[in-house]
Amino acid sequence: MKMTPACTGCKIQSRSIDISSFECDDEHIVVSGELCDRRLVPTTDLKGNPNEAGVVHQLRICMKVATRTLVIEEIEADMQHFPHEECAGMHRSVEAIRGLTLSPGFSSRVKKKVGGRNGCIHLTTLLLAMAPAALQGYWVHNDRKPERRQISGKHLEQYLIDTCRVWRREGPLVKMVSETAGIDLPEKNVKKPSADR
Predict the structure, then answer these.
(1) CA distances from 63 to 108, 147, 152, 163, 192 (A)
(2) In this model, does residue 193 exceed pLDDT 60?
(3) What is the pTM of this model?
């Protein structure tokens, strides 16, 4: 990457997001996510008070997801480090997500329920990152035991088709998966890229 050698200055801040999925039982996975912001240099606040280098945000969310429906059945959060006293109770805002399904439109529903003035931007950021990771955990959970695997046209349409170039409707991977699983996908008109690009 061309920009990397130009980054010769002092590293001043880092954010890490770590998300893992765990088998809970045959019908559930637990998805655990942690967000950590670190200030790597001392700073001064608006009132002139010094801030030491250290952890600014450390947040954790755990959600229990039903593998048959992809409904979030349980969710909890804790905030181990936060910069303002008012942040203290914000971990409870994620309870509004209980009952939502991991499906198209999830991000907009999360933003509506716990975004902006209703919650914490950092918890919202972590939730939005956890959704696609939860789907990866779901696929791995199902693929461990082929009898659990649920491949249907609805699943392909909802979660995979046209999510990226590899999963494009007319591509070889979608063709192979649909043929192997015996799924008849409806044809859709696909716009071809214009020649003047």
Answers:
(1) 18, 24, 25, 24, 40
(2) no
(3) 0.85
